Structure formats: C-alpha cells, structure tokens
Amino acid sequence: MATAELAFDDLLDIDALRASCKTIAEAGCGNMLETRSKLLPILKKASAEAREQARLKLFEDGSGLNCANRISWIQDQLISVIFDFARTHVYPKDANGLAVAAVGGYGRGTLAPGSDIDLLFLLPQKAGPAMHKAVEFVLYLLWDVGFKVGHATRTVEECIRLSTTDMTIRTAILETRHICGDEALVTELQRRFDQEVTTGTAPEFIAAKLAERDERHRKAGDSRYLVEPNVKEGKGGLRDLQTLFWIAKYNYHVRDTGELVRLGVLSRHEWRLFQKADDFLWAVRCHMHYLTGKPEERLYFDIQPEIAKSLGYQARPGLSAVERFMKHYFLVAKDVGDLTRIFAAALEDQQAKAAPGIGGMIGRFANRPRKIPGASEFIDDRGRIALADPGVFKKDPMSIMRLFHVADLNGLEFHPDALKAVTRSLSLINNEFRESEEANRLFLSILTSRRDPGFILRRMNEAGVLGRFMPEFGKIVSMMQFNMYHHYTVDEHLIRTLEVLSEIDKGKAEEIHPLANKIMPEIEDRQTLYVAVLLHDIAKGRQEDHSIAGAKVARKLCPRLGLSAKQTEMVAWLIDQHLLMSMVAQTRDLHDRKTITDFAEKVQSLDRLKMLLVLTICDIRAVGPGVWNGWKGQLLRTLYYETELLLSGGFSQVSRKERAKHAAEQLSQALEGWSQKDQRTYTKLHYEPYLLSVDLEDQIRHAHFIRQTDKSGQALATMVRTHQFHAITEITVLSPDHPRLLSIIAGACAAAGANIADAQIFTTSDGRALDTILINREFPIDEDETRRAATIGKMIEDVLSGRKRLPEVIATRTKGKKRNKTFPVQPDVRISNALSNKFTVIEVECLDRIGLLAEITAVLSDLSLDIHSARITTFGEKVIDTFYVTDLVGQKVTNENRQVNIANRLKPVMTEQPDELKDNMPSGIIAPPRAAAVPKKARA
C-alpha cells in the first residue's frame, strides 16, 4: 500500500484533510447531526478535487487501470479519515476492534468514477451497540457525500458460514482487502476463508462462475460483436476478465494473475494480452462514466464518437475515428473471449479429470481418449477434438486446417488445449500454406459442409485462423459499421449469413423462406453460392465501394480456393450486385413494368436470379434481430416471380388495355349475388393501374368495403387487415381525393406511432381516393394488432375529418424526444425519368424522424405533384423513400429547372423540422376551407 500512496499522494493532501477534521473535533459540536454537517463540505470538496485530478490524469496517461486504482485509493483515504474521526472523536472507546474492508471490485483496488462502493464492516465476536453506531456514522457520512454504498456488517464467523451457502457472498469475500481498522480481523477472515471455504470446493465454484457467465452473456445479447456492447457485463467485457481472476484466485490461491505465467496456465504473451485488455476496457469504462455523469455501462452509439475522441482515435481512409475505436474495442473483446474461454475450459477439463471415474474400471475406459479413424494426429477426448501430440502443428502446419476439417466431419467440439495450440501456431500459416492446394480444398469442404459450417468457421475466426488464411478476411475482423442498421461486426455478420444459408440448405427454413427453400435444391453449384455468401462484405472499410472492391477480391481469391473461371465470375457478379435485389424490392414499385425489365436486364439468367435471391435473404437475416420480416420476404418473392416470368419468356404480350379489360370482367363475375347495376357501378370505379396491380381477392374486399361505406352514407372510412406471416398490417382508406391526402395519412400514422412500409395510392372514377397503407406490425397476437390498427385507423379518420389537427398530434408524439444527431446522414434527392415509363421517380435519402414522411409528401403536394405510389424503406437511422409522381395533368416532370426546384424545396425538410410547414398543413379534407383543387385525373 505504501507504494500506491507514494504514487497517488499528489491526488489528495491527506494530512491537510485530517487536520481540518481534527479542528472540527477540537471546536466541539453539540450533537451528531451538527458534527456531520460540519464535516460534510470538507469531505465533499476533498473528494471532488481528488476525483477531478484522477480525471485529468486519465487524459494525460490514458491508462484506465491507473484511473481505477487512483479512484480506489482516493476512496480508501476518505473512508480512513471518516473512520479515524469516528474512532478517535465520536466513539473513542467503542470502535476499537472494528475493521473496514473493501470487497468485490473495490476489493481489487479498482473503482470506476460512478461505481458503487462495496464495504464489509468486520466486528469482533463481542460487539456492543456503540460499535454498530460507529458503523452508521461512517455510512451516513459516505451517503451524505454522495456515494452509493453497498455494505454488510458481520463477524468473521458469520462471513464464513454465509459464504459456504451463498456464491455471491463467497465471491465478494474472495476479494476482501483491508482499508482501515483492525487489520488482524481481516487477516483472520482471509486465512479461515482459504482453509474452510475454498479448500476442496474449486469444482463447485468454477461451475457456478461459468454458469453465471453464460447467463450474463445471454442477458447481454450472447455475442461479443454487438455494436452497442456492455463494457462491464457483455461478452468479452470486464466481468469476463474478473471471472478469470476469481477462478484463478480460488483454484490456484494466487493474489495476482501475473502468477499464472509462473504456474504455466498462461503464456507471457497471453498475460500481456490480459493486461492490455484490462487497461483498455477500464479506460473505456472510466471515460463513459465521466462523459455521461453516471455509471453507464453500455457503449451506446451517441457516446461512441466522444469516447473515440477522448481516447485519441483519428479517421483513416475508409474508416471514421469512431469505427477505428470500435474495431479496437472488438479486437480486445475477442482477446478477452480467447483468454477466458481457453482458461475457463482448461480448468473445467482439469476438474473433470480429477473427478473419480464412474463405475470403476468401466468409468476409466469411458473417459479415455479415443482414436479418430483416418486422422492419427488427433484424438476424440470426450466429444472434443484434441491433439495426439503437442508438437503436431510444428511437424506439419497443414494439420491446423485438418483439425477443423476433422472436427466438422466427426461433429466434435474443440478441446481448449487444441485451440490454445492453434492460437500459438498462427505464424505457421504463411503464403506457402495459403497457396497449398490441400489447405484450400479442406477449407472449401468446411465452408460448404452440410453439417454446421458456421460453427466451425466461428471457431476458426476466434482462433485467428480465418484471418491468417484469408488476409482479406482479417482486415474486416472486429470491424463495425457506425450505423443503427447493422447489429454486428462485419466478420460476425458474414458468419451469421453463412449460418442462414446452411439453415436454408438443410431445408429447415420452409416456414420463414418458402421460395428460397423451394429453389435451393435447384441450385446445382453450391460452392459458388457459399463462397459468395462468405465474401459478400469482404471489402468493407475501403475507400472504394465495397461491392465493386469485393468483386475484385473475389476474382483474386476464388481461383486460389479452386473455383473455375466460370464460378469465379459468378461469385464476383453476386458480390458486385449483392445489394441490387434488396434495394429494388424495397425502394421500387414492383407493379411498374419498367422496374421488372430493368432488373431482368441486369440479372440476365435464372441461375443468377436464384442465387441472388438466396444471398439477399441470408444477408438481410444476418443484419440483426428484427431486421427481417415477412413483408420483405413478400417483396422479394414478388420481384423474383415477375422477373422469372420475363427471363423464361412467359411475360404476357397482351396489351395493357386488354389485360385491364379482362381483370374488370373477372371482378364483375366475382361479385356474386350483386345486382348487375352494382356489378357495373363498382367495377367501373377503377382505372387500369388498379385493375392490373391489385390481386382479385383484394379487389373483391375493396368492392364490399366501398359499397358498405356508400350505404352508410360515410364520407370517409378505414378498413384494417393484419398479415401475421408478413409482419405487416394493412389500413385501407376511402376518402374524398385531396392533393395532400397521403401527407395527412402519413402524419396521422406518425402521431399514432406507426411506421409506414409501403403505400398504394389509387383514385376512383368518381373522384375518391382508395389508398392502402402498409405499416410494420407491432404485436405478435392478431387480436392485439387488430386493436392497434383500429386505433390508428380512427386517428386517420379524426385527422382527415378535422376533429384533430395534424400539427398538434405530431407535436404530442415528438414532445420530449431529442433529434438524433449521432449519425450525420447527408440528405440526398435523386430525380429520374428513366426508372419508369409513366412516372417521374423521386428518391429521398436522409436521417429518419417522426413526421418526416408527412412533411415530404406535403412539399410534393405544394409543388403540384400527384403521388401515384410510395415505397418507404428504413435502414436503421436512415430512410430511403421513393415516390412515383406526375404533374397534375398526368405527365412526367421533364423540365430541368422544375426538377432543381423540387430538390431545393425538399432538402430543408430533410434536414430540419420547419414549423411553418406544419402550421400550414390542413386540419382535414372534409369540405376543407380552401380554393377548389385542380381535379385529379386517374393516377395512371
């Protein structure tokens, strides 16, 4: 402790603090409250100034462990001063024999700025009431200063008894450290704890800590590659390092993890990794606490840039400063995972070997490692592949790749010693190894395995083999993308994508992906598809577009893997176009013939179409939980079927007019039981776009809906339908037509908290609008979702009828919500007349916020543009909204000046929240107080 004081005594003038406290004691105080009130400002000032010094020194030396040690030391001094005051001046006879000890994390001599203080007040066997009052005096002062204190007041005997039955108490006492008071009492506790609690109970403790770790990981997301990690509790975080220390201390009776090198448990290199990881994670945690002013443990997006700045990260070509910081974080988390996994599993294995055999001789033989047929360099050690000879990799480096191949063939887990040997042999994977025909053949076999290729590749990645064997993959290991869309690092995303492909390949995804499940057996070249899936994001983080750069990587890498020239070109094409199908399906009108013909021209063959569909599904599924839904699946199926029809030569050559006439006849015939007059009336309501793009089943539903509305004499009405499989809810609105109708509906949905996914907009021949709005589903049970949709429908009706004002309901929704400024999405407006034969396509890309769609559509209405359809796509914090528009006489917008004006009017809305725009929004459309709108023609 003396060394620590010499290192830290510039943080706090202890002698001056004690002198100030002594002055108060000598002045005398009337009562306990008055004494505490006089001590309080002195202690608060000393604590604040010392902690500020610790903060400044963190910025000077950058060491997180030093910062945690400094704060712990400061806390020790404050507690010692308070305790000494109580023992000397308040309870001079009654506090002797009492000891104050730090436990838990504080017991290790580390404290984060916002951490709780865990204290153990050790009492002698015969402790009087006054001793308890002394404890209260210390605690009250600590609470008054503002510390959160977890405490226990026990005798040594009570500590020993409780620790035998409670694993949490046992873990806390394991790290007991004397602060002040009777040190002999703390020493006795430590001695008895080692003798009476830890002896012979290591297997029990290790099992409990590993189970606790697994449950903690499950709660924190069960992946060390979540892009908003929990620095303390998450996988690869500080608690994992602490678990390692607890187990080491309990099992080996060491006070310092550095002793594990001497014991041969960790190599010197691994010990340095331990130290670096511990220091880095403590630095991140301390900066988080200082930045947020609270004990924040999750590294949220909005604080990541500030932490990166505090730690001195700078941007580099292809990677921002925050992305470089987070890549370092995930590399450290990977190191922590390697250390804790190897160490904990080795201990677990050691304990299993020490356990007596089951059934005598039979048990001994049952636990004996077995030979693996055809793989003499490896053995099967109770379901885990192990090395028959520790020097096998030095003798034959190719055995590194064979280890994973044999594990896959035999369905084996990996013995921790084998993985440790792999990690320590990575230097053997050189250019000769990479170019080896055998290594590439084995790797391709692992990659395309029909068993569990994702599991094997994840183990290869964790051991560092994947990045060494494919340096291109090594560049994206632990790389994050700073956005809300991607939930995992790039390498984890690629492995998860492969796992989804394997699931589809095994026929286990029929319920989620019926089309992919059907066409997967038709894909003869599985190798090409698997390679493309693994490599599709291989070039992330480069200055060049990652799809183009990825195709170049594939052309270089695929021949090495043993793929033919034809296969290589297919992989390159799939990587180059891997975003195409997703973007077309989600941002284009799939009922527009030009969308399909343009897409088909790029795809060109059914083989490409099938592979691209499966790759697209795997890619979206692996982005993160909740990103995939049935609606996206339906969009992809629609695009696939329409394109397949065109590529196979089956696209109808019948004229558009003839097809619309036939659709009208089908609708008329389907309205069974209706009078001929009603059949004619309700069939003639619809124009060609409606008849050609809406399914007959929906046309029939709409006809009944419209007729019922007419009979009831309603000016407007809504109808809802839920689609559980598609995870989408449909709200159909029948209303008098109005230039701002979509804007008002969008605003009403925003006010009700509904996210619009798509909008189909039609005008009937009698001047009404029949609009179908598709919103993302919120509740899993249909009854709950139907009630929610009905509430949203009622909100739409209230706004359209003028019973509620749109600016007010949107203001209510956004009240108290700050604008997201963490992700600076550059607003962009693209206007094209080449994407549709009939419409001008306006695509806007910007940062998402409540009410955005309502404001954009209001601007389009102000510009006298008629919106025919809209595709609303959200990628995390970013939206890409696409509108198919014409002018009010049904023509494309071709004038360049007008196009520039459209873009100029939209951009302010995309960057700000213009109050004047909201104020000008109409309150309703039933007899609105405005000049007569230009009558709209068919939205054709």
Give the SSE map:
Layout (H helix, E strand, L loop, with lengths): L1 H7 L5 H14 L4 H30 L2 H27 L8 E4 L1 H4 L9 E7 L5 H17 L3 E7 H8 L3 H8 L2 E5 L1 H16 L3 H19 L17 H15 L6 H4 L5 H25 L11 H7 L10 H34 L6 H6 L3 E2 L6 E4 L2 E4 L4 H4 L3 H12 L2 E2 L1 H8 L7 H5 L1 H11 L5 H11 L1 H5 L1 H4 L15 H16 L8 H6 L6 H10 L10 H16 L3 H12 L3 H8 L5 H11 L2 H16 L8 H18 L8 H15 L5 H8 L4 H6 L2 H17 L4 E7 L4 E9 L4 H11 L4 E8 L4 E9 L5 H19 L5 H9 L13 E5 L7 E8 L4 H11 L2 E11 L2 E10 L8 H16 L3 H5 L21
Parallel strand pairs: 2-3, 7-8
Antiparallel strand pairs: 1-2, 1-4, 5-6, 6-7, 9-10, 10-12, 11-12, 11-15, 13-14, 14-16, 15-16
Helix pairs in contact: 2-3, 2-4, 3-4, 3-6, 4-6, 4-13, 7-8, 7-9, 10-11, 10-15, 11-15, 13-15, 14-15, 15-19, 18-21, 18-22, 22-25, 25-27, 25-32, 27-29, 28-29, 30-33, 31-33, 32-33, 34-35, 38-39, 38-40, 38-41, 41-42
Q: What is the terminal separation in angstroms?
A: 83 Å
Strand percentage lies at: 5-15%
Please identify which CATH superfamily of the largest domain we are dealing with: Beta Polymerase, domain 2
Helical stretch tally: 43
> Could you say what the CATH architecture of the largest domain is?
2-Layer Sandwich
Low-confidence stretches: 1-6, 356-366, 914-920, 927-940
* CATH C-level name of the largest domain: Alpha Beta
What summary fits the major beta sheet?
8 strands, antiparallel
Q: Give the overall pLDDT as a whole number.
A: 85
| Helix/strand/pairing category | alpha+beta
- Cα Rg: 34 Å
Strand order of the largest sheet: 9-10-12-11-15-16-14-13
Give the overall silhouette: globular
The tally of domains stands at: 5
Question: What's the CATH topology name of the largest domain?
Answer: Beta Polymerase, domain 2
Q: In which range does the helix fraction lie?
A: 55-70%
For the secondary structure, the number of strands is 16
